[in-house]
Amino acid sequence: MAYFCHSCGNEQIFEVKVGVKVGRRDSCPHCGADLHCCKNCRLYDPSLHNQCREPEAAFIRDRTEANFCMHFDFRDADAFKVDTSTVDAKAKLAALFKNLK
């Protein structure tokens, strides 16, 4: 199974045979971003009020910084999707106005 950094998108290599254990202070070797953070968790959902699918989870202000959440479970490759809808929409809008000049 592949795991990716929320910040740079590079694959993380773990030397663990059963399950992925990410320490609170572990960071991405590529960009230095914290790995034990909400944005790398499979429960992270920005569309929810608390931005977490776990109703018992404590509120965490900065979703990109390391935290002590006990519900953390590293998001796998299937859950890691880069949202390109904004970039695509801006490109289409720019192309539309480019044609009007």
Short description:
By secondary structure, this protein is mainly α. A two-stranded antiparallel ribbon has the order 1-2.
**Termini gap:** 49 Å
Order of helices and strands: EEH
Bin the helical content.
Answer: 10-25%
| Total DSSP helices | 1
Q: Describe the largest sheet.
A: 2 strands, antiparallel
The total count of strands amounts to: 2
Summarize the SSE layout with pairings.
Blueprint: E1 3-4, E2 11-12, H1 85-100
Antiparallel strand pairs: 1-2
Question: How would you describe this structure to a colleague?
Answer:
The structure is a single chain. The chain has one domain (1-101). The protein has a two-stranded antiparallel sheet with strand order 1-2. It has one helix at residues 85-100, and strands at 3-4, 11-12. It is mainly alpha-helical.
Please give a handful of descriptors for the protein shown.
101 residues, mainly alpha, two-stranded antiparallel ribbon, 16% helix
